[in-house]
TrEMBL record, chain B:
Belongs to the complex I 24 kDa subunit family. This is NADH-quinone oxidoreductase subunit E. Keywords: 2Fe-2S, Iron, Iron-sulfur, Metal-binding. InterPro entries: NuoE-like, NuoE_dom, NuoE_N, Thioredoxin-like_sf. Pfam families: 2Fe-2S_thioredx. PANTHER family: NADH DEHYDROGENASE [UBIQUINONE] FLAVOPROTEIN 2, MITOCHONDRIAL (PTHR10371:SF3), NADH DEHYDROGENASE UBIQUINONE FLAVOPROTEIN 2, MITOCHONDRIAL (PTHR10371). Binds 1 [2Fe-2S] cluster. Its cofactor is [2Fe-2S] cluster. The keyword Metal-binding applies.
Automatic annotation (TrEMBL), chain C:
Its EC number is 7.1.1.-. NDH-1 is composed of 14 different subunits. Subunits NuoA, H, J, K, L, M, N constitute the membrane sector of the complex. NDH-1 shuttles electrons from NADH, via FMN and iron-sulfur (Fe-S) centers, to quinones in the respiratory chain. The immediate electron acceptor for the enzyme in this species is believed to be ubiquinone. Couples the redox reaction to proton translocation (for every two electrons transferred, four hydrogen ions are translocated across the cytoplasmic membrane), and thus conserves the redox energy in a proton gradient. Its main location: membrane. NCBIfam families: NuoI (TIGR01971), PRK05888.1-1 (NF004536). Its cofactor is [4Fe-4S] cluster. Binds 2 [4Fe-4S] clusters per subunit. It is found in: Cell membrane. Residues 41-73, 83-112 form the 4Fe-4S ferredoxin-type domain. This is NADH-quinone oxidoreductase subunit I. It comes from Igneacidithiobacillus copahuensis.
Automatic annotation (TrEMBL), chain D:
It is a multi-pass membrane protein. It is found in: Cell membrane; Membrane. Its EC number is 7.1.1.-. PROSITE patterns: COMPLEX1_ND1_1, COMPLEX1_ND1_2. Keywords: Cell membrane, Membrane, NAD, Oxidoreductase, Quinone, Translocase, Transmembrane, Transmembrane helix, Ubiquinone. It comes from Igneacidithiobacillus copahuensis. It catalyses: a quinone + NADH + 5 H(+)(in) = a quinol + NAD(+) + 4 H(+)(out). The keyword Translocase applies. This is NADH-quinone oxidoreductase subunit H. The keyword Translocase applies. GO terms for biological process: aerobic respiration. The chain crosses the membrane at residues 6-27, 80-101, 107-128, 149-169, 181-198, 235-254, 260-278, 290-316.
Length: 770, 166, 167, 319
């Protein structure tokens, strides 16, 4: 890279053009604005409608630069930098009075209808328009007509619209329609009546709608959730975070202040989330502020202090009749700490409570290095199995980019999907037939590398197994990218997928074990019938959400939420990423006179930290009480060193699980296929906002539809359906029609599936009720 | 996307089949028929209400937002009830110089409602260039006939005629 | 000679002051403070009696001693206000930057300058103590007249409606 | 019995002198206030007189603190030395003919000059024992200043002695009857006056404790009553010099209607007032300027004065 100020001819690496005499390197195909933005963080050229993900439009006319022709015959002319291809030795001027005047005039025009409401605008302090207007030097309006006025729309609990602030840069609609594929948001009208919005009030339907707040260069679309706990962005402490809400592992930038987590924004990672973050990642963080989040340790449903609960737990563990359950949504160290504790106690440990889920995790681990999400768009042939858009809402962005590049996308699904519009081949199937259809697709001759995107929640382990067995015969570069909603599945299950779940169940079903210590997982939420039939097992829970069994459990220990502690997460591609502590929950306090309320922090007051222990600390405390501290530490270090060849720091791009560590999982035999009948079968219905943690985010979760059974239209006249579990219990669900879904399929939320002990693809005998 | 409203009662079946024919004519690109559908529906009903908007969206296989984008962009597609008649008076430069602003003021005074709104019988709209600059000021009546040049007296009589009609 | 002149001139100058007294006997005699005296900041109301502060946090951002802390919230009508507003006068240096930064002329420096406390914590003034029932220096100013944003949803004929039949 | 009475009387004199010194601190602040558009301390007692007592009480009540780095004995003795040398001078000072503790000592003038030189020992020891660079600087300045101004002062007095033919203070006072010696010795008076200010380190010549440069000069490390001693010494020195000026140049106790001792007191008070006035009016010179004037202006002038006096005495005889 050329450093600033060095004579550019010395720079043989890249070709350069000159902006105000400064050499700016560029790559072929870049335009001038892109090159300048890539060259330095703060652009000296103001701009609005340009966005790295959406490219140039030339609509705002703000990024003008003076171009000096080489021939000397033509006079210099003003051109938009975002529309000017960078070429060698181009001479551009930005700092001259004429250009600056032009920028000022454009700013004045853009501000013509923009209200003077920065003080009450949430964008103030992070507003592109504010920055550019100040930078261009426009300070006083000379023409003061009445400003244009709109009726803003109510766009749901996540995004707030204030249309009067619009400068018609079209970024929102370009993002929403062209990139996110949203159908319920558009641009209406013409001239100066252009309006960006929906047909009528209502929540935006796209799971990527939250990005509007970041895409909009001014305050038309702002973050409603952030607004609840609003503090100016300059007061926020931002850290490098990792989204824990699905297997993609998007990089986030949580912003916290005064002991509260206030917002999450996206932090660009070129391979995972170059530009955008889905709403689950953006708003799911609110689970830390859920009203029912447990904060008190309990014993038998009664409040107790942590130490006495730990004492009782340690005494119980010392009896040697306890089994351990880890969690694929907890971070690596927490799982390893519990695993090490189980090892030193020689107790059974599993990361999954269900052998079926465990088998899937094993198949996921056995996959050869999957491609990074951002690489999806490079594939020419893509097979999508299941509802990946519901599991990982950012994936459609990459699929859309692939489609725009001419990729052939095939879709096998049982639920409606926004990807239908992109798919060349679109087959609507019951879940049990997905495997055969995928097999058919592979049977077609593919010469170019292709990609299988699998929603591993709607398929069984046998599909993953059979498909990954074939990888050797595929063209080089082909791969499988599984998606699921657990943030750290490979990390949690690495030591615990060789039939551990079955052994755990056998142990608990026998007489030797009568106590289960579960971290971040609730067996009742994993397999309802089994748990109901083993009611004599005592359950101890370490968690930061109030799970189903929380109030009935023998002992409960609340722990710090994921954003309140550092963590390491293996995402779906086996990439290990580190998240920093996003915030420390705290309450303002002052010492001298409590009745006057908290002493202002900014004025020298203090924050009293309200810390809950992390799972690792709880495990350490248990090990100390058991007198096994040293052995536990030794174990932990051993497992950790084996798994973490190199440990990334927060903000690093991440390191991969070594191939040889994955290889040992390939030797497993095929999981037994399930019997399929031709009657009704179930599939998992999910909304994009659903995830164990994100369910606690009130605003986001309010968008999820009420629990129901969904069927294709015109199949049944009944209003309700009753389903029976193997143990005789039953559930009655309201029946709803869902257009564009597979016939003879009942789509049921996960909680109901678990209660009934059903897995996607299982045949059922529904009882139709009126 | 709001739920599609039933249009069975407001759109006669003959019209519906005619619309379907137009869509079929567009072949593999049904969305190409959207302008034709809007034109037919507006000719039949006078303006495009929400039901017709949804119908067009359904027939063309595109989202209602797209149809609305198109409707609100083009001035000849009306999204509000204009009354029985529409008078468009050109206010582009030639007509402006020839007295269109005076005519518009007159029309407003006579109809009693601001430009663009209906007084129940008719509405008067300013309009971009009608291409009749040589006979300015020009007007466009009910989307069918042009009147050019439009004198103040002719305007008064026209509007009076419409009022009497009701 | 200049030295002597200087000496005598200065002696004469001081001697002439014998009759003048600029000192006020403060607690008994109250000083007359100027309009722009920079004393304790207060929060004012607009002519309608509404709180002017919209919790934009510019005052706390500009405060060189970080003595202002506030958090905003929304009223049911959509207007923003300071839910809590606290100034620590043990830290305040009366520089007046907050007043200068305030876009709604809510925070104004008042002529009150003398307040002593026996406890440091008592210097923390909360919103109830800061808010006065008056408009302060700008009697006519209403921020929302100038903001260009109607926070209350008022369907007006002049609102831009993209669905309107106008071209 | 008489001896006992004398002891009591001396004690009373001492207390009165100390009281005067304390009062002068207050008086100076008031006068400065008057001269600077202010009021000065006026809260305590009528016209604020109680301020003097309050200050004294405050000083007495303060902690007696010796910095750990100071050399203890010298540090403790220095302020006493200062106060002592100032007080001892009053022993020979006649208030009127026959009113003086030491009687009409032949070498009264010499004793006073010697005691005023002793005063600088206290100052120097204080600055030295404080082990503080500012204090040491202040002390060095005090010494150099004293040496530089002691000479012109002595020479000015020599001219006076030449005229009066006596070293005894009462004799010198008597020489000022009926015509004050200032008439014969205007130049000598000026020299003595300036040197006297320098001697007592009063403003504008208080370079030994110039707070803008040296924090507090030689008494930087002092607090409480030890600092009070320095203060006492300074103000008693002021009284002493003022008394000397009125005794030697202003005609001592001569004056109509009132008794002589009262005249003496009035004249002293007047001179003190002038000192206050000077303090209110004049800025402090630079240190090099101070020494420059002392050696290059005042000393030659004093020699000239002595020469002229000698010539005049030779021509027209002494008084």
């Amino acid at each position: 890279m050329c450093k600033k100020g060095i004579v550019p001819t010395r720079c043989a690496m890249a070709e350069v053009f000159y902006l105000d005499g400064e050499a700016i390197p560029f790559r072929a195909g870049q335009n001038v604005l892109e090159a300048v933005l890539a060259h330095r963080q703060e652009s000296s050229i103001p701009y609005f409608c340009f966005h790295p993900a959406m490219g140039s439009l030339g609509a705002c006319r703000q990024c003008g630069v003076m171009v000096y022709p080489h021939d000397g015959k033509h006079p210099p002319r003003l051109t938009m930098a975002c529309l000017l291809p960078a070429s060698r030795d181009l001479q551009l001027g930005r700092a001259e009075a004429k250009v600056q005047h032009e920028h000022q005039l454009i700013s004045e025009l853009l501000m013509r209808n923009h209200p003077h409401d920065c003080p009450i605008c949430d964008e103030g302090g992070q507003c592109h328009l504010q920055n550019m207007t100040v930078a261009s030097g426009h300070a006083y309006r000379e023409y003061e007509p009445e400003k244009r006025r709109y009726q803003s729309q109510e766009l749901g609990p996540l995004i707030r619209q204030e249309m009067n602030r619009c400068i018609t840069c079209y970024r929102c609609v370009r993002f929403y329609q062209d990139l996110a594929g949203g159908e319920d948001f558009g641009v209406f009208g013409s001239r100066d009546r252009v309006f960006f919005g929906r047909l009528e009030d209502g929540p935006l339907e796209s799971p990527l709608a939250g990005n509007l707040a970041e895409v909009c260069p001014t305050g038309v679309f702002t973050d409603k959730v952030y607004h609840q706990d609003y503090l100016r962005p300059w007061d926020l402490e931002e850290s490098a975070g990792i989204c824990p809400h699905c297997s993609i592992g998007c990089n986030t930038r949580p912003g916290a202040a005064r002991g509260r987590l206030r917002r999450v924004r996206q932090r660009s990672h070129g391979e995972i989330n170059p530009h955008f973050l889905c709403d689950r990642g953006r708003y799911g963080f609110r689970y830390v502020a859920a009203e029912d989040r447990p904060r008190q340790a309990q014993a038998g449903g009664r409040r107790q202090d942590v130490d006495s609960v730990l004492d009782r737990l340690a005494a119980r563990l010392a009896e040697g009749r306890s089994a351990f359950l880890g969690s694929p949504r907890e971070d690596l160290d927490s799982n390893l700490a519990l695993f090490a504790l189980a090892r030193v106690l020689d107790a059974p440990f599993a990361a999954f409570f269900e052998p079926w889920e465990e088998a899937k995790a094993r198949e996921i681990l056995a996959l050869p290095h999957p491609p990074a999400p951002a690489r999806i768009s490079a594939y020419a042939e893509i097979l999508v199995i299941g509802a990946v858009d519901r599991v990982a809402p950012t994936l459609p962005l990459f699929l859309r980019a692939a489609h725009d590049r001419g990729a052939a996308i095939s879709l096998l699904r049982c639920l409606p999907s926004p990807l239908t519009a992109l798919a060349g081949e679109d087959r609507l199937l019951p879940p049990a037939d997905l495997l055969d259809a995928a097999w058919d697709w592979l049977g077609q001759r593919h010469h170019r590398p292709f990609l299988l995107l699998i929603d591993s929640e709607s398929v069984g382990p046998e599909l993953l197994h059979l498909l990954r067995r074939e990888i050797g015969t595929w063209p080089d570069g082909s791969g499988i990218l599984p998606v699921y909603r657990q943030g750290n599945l490979p990390g949690a299950s690495f030591y615990a997928v060789d039939g551990h779940a079955s052994r755990l169940r056998t142990a608990l079903a026998g007489h030797d074990y009568d106590h289960l210590l579960a971290l971040g997982q609730d067996p009742q939420e994993m397999d309802g019938p089994w748990w109901r039939s083993h009611g004599d097992i005592d359950l101890s829970l370490i968690d930061h959400r109030r799970s189903l069994s929380w109030d009935d459990a023998w002992l409960t220990l609340p722990c710090a939420a994921l954003s309140e502690r550092p963590g390491l997460y293996y995402n779906g591609e086996g990439r290990l990423q580190a998240a920093a502590v996003a915030y420390t929950p705290a309450r303002e306090e002052r010492h001298w006179r409590s009745e006057l309320g908290p002493f202002p922090l900014a004025a020298g007051g203090a924050l009293r930290e309200e810390l809950l222990p992390s799972p690792v600390e709880l495990c350490r405390a248990l090990a100390e009480r058991l007198g096994l501290s040293e052995r536990w530490q030794e174990r932990l270090r051993f497992h950790r060193d084996f798994l973490l060849r190199s440990e990334p720091r927060p903000g690093d791009p991440g390191v991969f699980l070594p191939a040889e560590l994955r290889a040992r999982f390939r030797l497993h035999s095929a999981p037994p296929p399930r019997a399929t009948d031709q009657g009704w079968s179930v599939c998992r219905f999910s909304h994009y906002s659903e995830e164990e943690l994100a369910n606690g985010a009130r605003e986001l979760h309010s968008l999820a539809p009420a629990s129901a059974a969904w069927i294709a239209p015109g199949q049944q006249e009944a209003r309700q359906v009753r389903l029976r579990a193997a143990d005789g219990t039953s559930r009655t669900l309201p029946l709803r029609e869902l257009p564009d879904m597979a016939a003879k399929v009942l789509a049921i939320p996960r909680a109901e599936l678990v209660f009934l002990g059903l897995r996607p693809g299982d045949g059922v005998d529904p009882e139709w009720l009126d | 996307m709001s739920s599609p409203t039933s249009t069975a009662e407001s759109v006669p079946t003959t019209l519906l089949s005619r619309l379907q024919q137009v869509v079929e004519h567009a072949g593999s690109h049904p969305e190409a028929a959207v302008c034709d559908l809007l034109r037919i529906l507006q000719a039949e009903h006078g303006w495009i209400d929400d039901e017709r908007l949804q119908l067009v969206a359904r027939l063309c296989g595109i989202s209602p937002v797209r149809v609305e984008e198109l409707c609100t962009f083009y001035p000849l597609v009306l999204r509000e009830d204009p009354g029985r008649h529409v008078l468009r008076i050109c206010d582009s430069i030639a007509c402006h110089l020839a007295g269109a602003p005076g005519l518009l003021r007159m029309a407003v005074a006579q109809s009693g409602v601001p430009l663009g709104q209906s007084n129940g019988h008719y509405s008067v709209l300013p309009h971009v260039c009608l291409g009749l600059c040589e006979r300015a000021p020009a007007a466009f009546v009910d989307g069918k006939n042009t009147v050019a040049p439009l004198s103040a007296e002719a305007l008064r009589q026209l509007l009076q005629g419409w009022e009497r009609e009701s | 000679m200049r030295l002597w002149h200087g000496l005598l001139a200065s002696l004469w100058t001081t001697l002439r002051q014998l009759r003048r007294r600029d000192t006020l006997q403060y607690p008994e005699q109250q000083p007359k403070l100027g309009e722009r005296w920079r004393g304790r900041p207060i929060l004012t109301r607009d002519p309608d009696g509404e709180e002017r502060c919209v919790a934009c946090e510019l005052c706390s951002a500009v405060c060189p001693t970080h003595c202002i802390a506030l958090e905003g919230a929304d009223r049911p009508n959509g207007r923003r206000f300071a839910q809590s507003f606290r100034i620590n006068f043990a830290r305040c240096i009366y520089c007046g930057l907050c007043e200068e930064a305030c876009p709604t002329v809510a925070i104004q420096l008042s002529p009150e300058f003398a307040f002593a406390k026996t406890e440091r914590g008592d210097f923390v003034y909360h919103k109830e103590a800061l808010l006065i029932d008056g408009t302060g220096k700008h009697p006519e100013y209403r921020y929302y007249d100038h903001a260009g944003v109607r926070t209350q949803a008022l369907p007006e004929p002049r609102n831009c409606d993209p669905r309107s039949n106008l071209p | 019995m008489l001896f006992f009475a004398q002891i009591v009387a001396m004690f009373v004199t001492l207390l009165v002198l100390l009281g005067i010194a304390g009062f002068l601190v207050f008086a100076e602040r008031r006068v400065l206030g008057l001269l600077q558009n202010r009021l000065g301390p006026n809260r305590l007692g009528p016209l604020g007189v109680g301020q003097a007592l309050a200050d004294a009480l405050k000083l007495l009540c303060k902690e007696d603190f010796v910095p750990p780095f100071a050399s203890g004995l010298l540090y403790r003795t220095a302020p006493i030395l200062v106060a002592f040398s100032a007080l001892a001078g009053f022993a020979v000072l006649p208030l009127a003919p026959g009113i003086s503790w030491a009687g009409d000592w032949e070498i009264g003038l010499l004793l006073i000059l010697a005691l005023s030189s002793l005063h600088v020992y206290g100052v120097f020891l204080g600055g030295w024992s404080s082990n503080n660079k500012f204090a040491l600087y202040g002390a060095i300045r005090a010494v150099a200043q004293l040496i530089s101004y002691e000479l012109p002062m002595g020479l000015a007095l020599l001219a006076l002695v030449l005229l009066a033919g006596s070293l005894a203070l009462q004799g010198l006072g008597a020489a000022g009857q009926p015509v004050p010696l200032i008439v014969y010795q205007p130049l000598g008076f000026l020299i003595f006056f300036i040197a006297g200010i320098a001697e007592t380190q009063r403003l504008p010549f208080d370079l030994a404790e110039a707070e803008s440069e040296l924090v507090a000069g030689y008494h930087t490390e002092y607090g409480g009553m030890r600092f009070g001693y320095f203060f006492l010494g300074e103000y008693l020195g002021l009284v002493l010099i003022a008394a000397l000026i009125s005794l030697l140049y202003l005609g001592a106790w001569s004056g109509p209607w009132l008794p002589g001792w009262l005249w003496m007191l009035l004249k002293t008070g007047f001179v003190i007032g002038i000192f206050f006035w000077l303090r209110a009016s004049l800025p402090r010179p630079r240190y090099d300027q101070l020494l420059h004037w002392g050696w290059n202006a005042l000393l030659p002038l004093a020699i000239l004065n002595l020469l002229l006096t000698a010539i005049a005495a030779a021509l027209w005889g002494t008084l």
